[in-house]
Each structure stands twice: as C-alpha cells, then as structure tokens.
Amino acid sequence: MSKYDVIIIGSGLGGLECGTILSKEGYNVCVLEKNELFGGCFQTYQRKGRLLDTGIHYIGSMNEGQVMHQFFRYLGIIDKLKLRKLDENAFDRIYHKGRIYDYAMGYERFTNTLSEAFPHETENLHQYAEILKEVGNLISVDNLKKGIISNEGMKFFNTSAAEMIAQITPDPDLQSALAGSALLYGGLRNHSNFYEHAMINNSYIQGAYRFIDGSMQVATEMINTIRANGGTVLNNSEVTRIIVDNGRVQGVEVNGTEQIEGDYVISNVHPQRTLALLDKNRCIKNAYISRINSLENTYGIFTLYLVMKPDSYPYINRNLYLHGDSDVWYDKKAYMGQTTNCMISTQASSRSSNYANVISILTPMYIDELSAWLNTRPEQRGEEYRMFKKQKASQLLEFIKKHGIDFGDNIEAMYTTTPLSYRDFTGTHNGSAYGIIKDYKRPQIGFISTRTKLNNLFLTGQNMNVHGALGVTLTSIITCSEFLGREYLAKKIGNA
Asked: What are the backbone angles phi and psi of residue 10, rounded to the nearest 5°?
C-alpha cells in the first residue's frame, strides 16, 4: 500500500495549487484525478487540430505586483506561462438595449470611459471604483508581505450585489452596465453578494489577460512542479471511498479496489460529493450533512465553440457580453430554455495574433433542461441530444446576429458542450459552472470552512470562498495555511 503525507482528491485548479504549495514546502503529496485529462476547468482539448478551452477564458490581477501574478511567481511558473494582455481600453464590452459600454483597464481609465456614456454619473462611478478597490485590497500583495492572507470582508458578503449597485447609482442603464459581466460568477439578482462581484471585477480591472494556446498550460506546469518536488499526480484514478477509522481519515480507496494511505486528505471535489465518499463516522454530524446537501448551486453553461476558417475573421482582443432587452441578471424561472444573454470570447493562439482561431460563446443553462439525459454517459446520448444541442447553437447564433455580429461563412466547424459535459469531464456538481451559490441573505450558511470535524480532512476549491481563478487560489492558500501557518505562507508568497 502506497503512503503519502497528503492525498489530494481532484486535479482542478484548487487541487493542483494545494499540491504545488505543499510539495514546494516539503510534503510528499499525491493528487488523484478520476478523468483522463487533468486540470478541471483548466482543461484544454483538441478538435480539428485546434485547442478548445474548457472553462477559463481570461484571468485577472496578472500585472507584476498584483496578487495572481505574485502567486504564480511563488509557484515558480509565471515565466513559463504564455499570456496576452487584453485591450486596455476595452477588455470587456457590454451590449444592452442597443447601447455599448466598455470596461477599460486601470481605474482611472475605467471610470473615464464609462463617464463618457454616463456624464451625469461621474461622481457615482468614482464611488463605485473606490468600493471595488476596497474589496480588492483585502487580498493585496502588500497584505501578504505583512503575513495577512485576507482581511475581513464579511460586510460585503452580507450585501446584495444588485442592491449595492442600485445604492451607488439610481440610473437603471448604468446599473445594468455595471452588472453586465455577471455571467463571470453565475450572477443572480436575488442571491449574488457584492464581495464576489467586487473581487472578480477588481481583478480584471487591475490586469486582464488570456492564455495563449489554452489554460491547460497552468495545470501542466503545476503538475511538472509537483513531480519535480517528488510528488505523484495520477489520472484515471477515481476516489471511490474516503477511509475513516477512530475519528481520523486513514486514506482513500481508488477505483473501488486499491487503497492509498495518507496522513491528511484534501478534497477539491464538491463538498456534497466529499461527504458521500466518507465512511460513516461520529465526527461529521447529520445536521452538517443536511446543511451542505441543502445548498443550491449556480447555473451551468452551454458553450458553443466556433472553429474558424484560417485567416477569415479578425481576432477580438476583448470579451463581449450580449444581453437582450431583459434584465442582465439571469432568471431561471423567467428565462428557462431561452437565450437572454451570452459571453463571446476569442481564444488567443500562437497560430495567428491577427485572426480568430477558435471563438467560444457561453450562455447560462441549468441541468434541468437536460433531464432526459441525466442518467447517460458521453457518446451514449443519441440523436435527440445532438439535435437539442444543434437547436440551442442555432438559437444562440440568431441571438448574436440581433446584436449586429455575424460570423457567417467564416465558420469551419462547430462543437458544443452542456452542463452534462462539465459534470462528466470536470466533475462539477450537476454541471454547475461555479459551485455553491454565495447567497448574501445567508452568508454564514453558505460559507464552508476549509476545516472539517475530522481533523485531518480539509476542503478546497470554488465552493469555499469566491468563484473563478482568484477565489480558488485564495482558498487554496487558506487550505494550505492549515499545514504551514497563515503568516508563514502569506509572507512566502508575498516576498517571492
């Protein structure tokens, strides 16, 4: 039986970050991935010789001296990543009710640009920018250097994102413009808190970048680092049981047969799945299990990939957020099955910096729309499923045409994924794009500690703190600080 200091379940960003940090700090780690491909939503796969990104379309706080850049520096991989900075004058473009609003990089440029569209709202825009910066500074590099991972921001967890924006500005069009990229965090008017809205938007305003040739490079570099540090990373290795004895996790069972022993276990999979894998024990109370199982998850994503004919359609160095005349906040009850908004992202490729190689189009979708195929596996869903996806893709392209964007004859091939694809290939619960909803109305209930009542079982990943690369990274640091100490780890990262 193999024995490790730390076993990590799942090779998504959170699992690999924990593995890289702990292996760097001297722990013998083993990362177990149930699928063929590593990386979770950082996976990149090929169709027609083109690279298709699974989930990460851009990343923020990547200028030198900003928190994500500093973290990758600490890991020793920043110089190995191929990055392209998005358009500083408009890294995001919001379409709503026939008007266009640009998000510019850097706060002075950001407020000045939006003030051109809303000259009567200049003062309110400055107030909005200051609040975003206040939230963003809770996890600054300066704090890390002082030994602080994150300052307290609970008041922002308790605050509705939509209501906070409405308090800052009475202009309904500006409210919509400021919430126009809510798809980034599974934004819901009646649930989303201002902390995640501000943290994510601040990150991109600081410095927004795309990965050239896919985000998988991040996962690959971390895997290489783990292995160079003596750690183990295994694919096709599904954890089917977490073994508990005498109030401690003893290890895991893999693929229903092999047992691996570990002093500690970190689970990067959904907390509900983690609890389902656990041997029965007295430490985890039924009330806790019921609470975790009752928590709602964010919506999933339907993605349409357009593989473009070579040198036919210009590369777009920004993301486009398109909205119908309806609310920019997605509403399941009102819009189920309809296309009311989408995000368009052109993947950066080393093939050409001037022309689009692959264009990804994302729109919200709940797994409820796929009830007929819930109990099926990939490649076994039949013709009706293919027709469903084809119709959804056509609906999406028609929606885009209404905004004056037509890819026309430039498309060489189209591919689609649904929440079922994410469920089966990345392990997200019910295909949810961003995990557990962070509800401002009950933040304490939705807030899940990285610690568990089993003192050698820890949690990490997007369900703990904030969605996205930044949120997962913050959570990974908090998880690993349980082993290394908060002040020690914060200073190591901050001074790397």
From this structure: 100, 130
Alpha carbon 239 to its chain centroid, in Å, reads 23
* Residue 101 belongs to a domain: yes
Between CA 288 and CA 271 the distance in angstroms is 11
| Parent domain of 137 | 87-211+299-431
- Residue 273 contacts by C-beta under 8 Å, 6 or more apart in sequence? 267, 427, 429
Instruction: Please give the Cα distance from 88 to 109 (Å, whole number).
Output: 8
Classify 34 in phi/psi space as left (phi over 0), alpha (psi -120 to 50) or beta. Answer: alpha
In the numeric block, the tokens 């703990």 are attached to 464
Would you say 300 and 418 are in contact if contact means Cβ atoms under 8 Å apart?
Answer: yes
Inside any domain, residue 437: no
Per the structure block, which two tokens stand in for 340? 């009311």
pLDDT per residue as tens digits for the range 176-191 = 999 999 998 899 999 9
124 and 161 housed in the same domain? yes
- Spatial contact of 99 and 106, defined as CB atoms under 8 Å apart: no
Q: How many structural domains is the chain composed of?
A: 2
Rounded-to-integer distance, Cα 460 and Cα 472, Å: 8
State pLDDT tens for residues 126-168.
Answer: 999 999 999 999 999 999 999 999 887 778 989 999 999 999 9
234 bridge partner residues: 32
Reported pTM:
0.95
In a domain, 361, yes or no: yes
CA distance 495 to 177: 37
CATH number for the domain harbouring residue 169: 3.90.660
On whether both 178 and 308 belong to a single domain, the answer is: yes
The distance of Cα 487 from the centroid of its chain, to the nearest Å, equals 26
Residues 162 and 132 in one domain: yes
Q: Are residues 187 and 313 in the same domain?
A: yes
Q: Are residues 309 and 418 in the same domain?
A: yes
The pLDDT tens digits of the residues spanning 322-331 come to 999 778 998 8
Residues 97, 203 within the same domain: yes
Q: Quick one: which of 130, 131, 148 has its CA closest to 139?
A: 148
Q: For residue 12, what is the DSSP state? A: S
Check whether residue 252 and residue 109 sit in a common domain: no
Between CA 282 and CA 163 the distance in angstroms is 42
Residues 329 and 377: beta-carbon distance below 8 Å: no
Task: Report the alpha-carbon distance of residue 318 to residue 251 in Å, rounded.
Answer: 45
Q: Are residues 318 and 421 in the same domain?
A: yes
- Contact by Cβ (8 Å): 414, 306: yes
Which residue in the block uniquely carries the two structure tokens 């893709």? 393
